[in-house]
Amino acid sequence: TCREFRNAASIMGNSALHKKMETASNAIKRDIVFAASLYVTGI
């Protein structure tokens, strides 16, 4: 999960990956990632 990757990145000292996983986790929690799937175009 994003949380596990975020924790692993923090342990390894990779702050860039930690930030990316935190952003992804927050986007998923707010359903931003899935918003585009609600609108199907080109059919």
Automatic annotation (TrEMBL):
Q: Which Pfam families does the entry mention? A: DSHCT (PF08148)
Q: In which organism is this protein found? A: Oryza sativa subsp. japonica (Rice)
This chain's protein is named Os02g0160000 protein
Q: Which InterPro entries match?
A: Ski2/MTR4_C
**Residue ranges of the ATP-dependent RNA helicase Ski2/MTR4 C-terminal domain?**
1-35
